[in-house]
Q: What sequence folds into this?
């Protein structure tokens, strides 16, 4: 039997955990010599305790050595990776690595990306694929090179996007598909039968980082685009709008048919309560809000908001 392949794994969020667990389970073939992840962060609560990353939690459960860093350019980090003598470095939702790190792997460093590259290069591929109304997506493994998300492709795995599927649900599915793809990629590298394919940048599209500016809802769009936009940002960070100068995050919505849909003078963003349904006017019809959170309050269903709206006088407008 050939010697085990020495692997350094780098990742931080839950998306990376299935891949880590799959590699660890293949202990006859792969030797996970180090797991690299981000440092512990403060919990989102009143308590001051720190929260380890999902990857760190999984690595400790598996009894694997962990190295935490938020500075992948430090000499200390480079020395730590070099000391592991990695055959392969596997990256899944981690930081952008400098060449002096990813070139330390004798047989290459590859990344698991949640799109069918070259489509949706960037920080938020799952979100933008849904927001743009795509019906298919997938995962790609590719060898790292200096320009982000442009390296030669090892494998792609394609899957459909459900018409009501949101970004959180799709990301979870892709993490499982991705774990299989990571193992297949490692097997190809180990066997020597890997034949990377150059990306055709003519077909590249971008998936930039999500910001407050690009996650705000513009209600003067067709209902289908509003639906895709909202589910593409659910459950995190959540598409947002404003009501009486307060931020309202919307986590679930669906196109709706209503009575008397062509009300004269109704403008996009107009809210309507109908039989315990919360409806909002789009450019060409109505969309039902299923789940939302008004700034300073807990998340509630659209029906609860609609019932409260009936007693609030003049119907409000999202802006």
A:
């Amino acid at each position: 039997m050939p010697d085990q392949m020495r692997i350094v794994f780098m990742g931080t969020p839950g998306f990376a955990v299935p891949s880590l667990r799959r590699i660890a389970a293949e202990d006859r073939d792969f030797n996970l010599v180090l797991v690299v992840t981000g440092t512990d962060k403060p919990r989102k609560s009143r308590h001051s305790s720190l929260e380890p990353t999902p990857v760190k939690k999984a690595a400790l459960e598996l009894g694997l050595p962990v190295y935490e860093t938020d500075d992948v350019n430090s000499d200390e980090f480079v020395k730590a990776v070099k000391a592991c003598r990695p055959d392969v470095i596997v990256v899944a939702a981690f930081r952008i690595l400098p060449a002096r790190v990813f070139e330390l792997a004798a047989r290459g460093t590859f990344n698991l990306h949640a799109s069918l590259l070259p489509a949706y290069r960037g920080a938020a591929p799952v979100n933008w694929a849904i927001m743009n109304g795509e019906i298919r997506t997938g995962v790609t493994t590719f060898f790292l090179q200096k320009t982000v998300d442009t390296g030669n492709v090892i494998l792609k795995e394609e899957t459909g996007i459900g018409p009501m599927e949101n970004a959180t649900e799709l990301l979870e599915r892709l993490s499982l598909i991705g774990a299989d793809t990571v193992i297949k990629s490692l097997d190809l590298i180990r066997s020597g039968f890997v034949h990377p394919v150059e990306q055709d940048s003519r077909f590249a599209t971008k998936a930039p980082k999500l910001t407050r500016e690009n996650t705000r809802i513009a209600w003067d769009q067709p209902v289908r685009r509003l639906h895709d936009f909202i589910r593409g940002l659910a459950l995190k960070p959540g598409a947002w709008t404003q009501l009486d100068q307060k931020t309202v995050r919307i986590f679930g919505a669906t196109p709706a048919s209503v009575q008397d849909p062509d009300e004269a003078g109704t403008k996009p963003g107009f809210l309507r309560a109908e039989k315990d349904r919360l409806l909002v006017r789009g450019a060409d019809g109505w969309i039902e809000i299923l789940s939302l959170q008004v700034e300073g309050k807990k998340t509630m269903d659209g029906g609860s908001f609609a019932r409260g709206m009936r007693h609030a006088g003049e119907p409000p407008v999202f802006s």
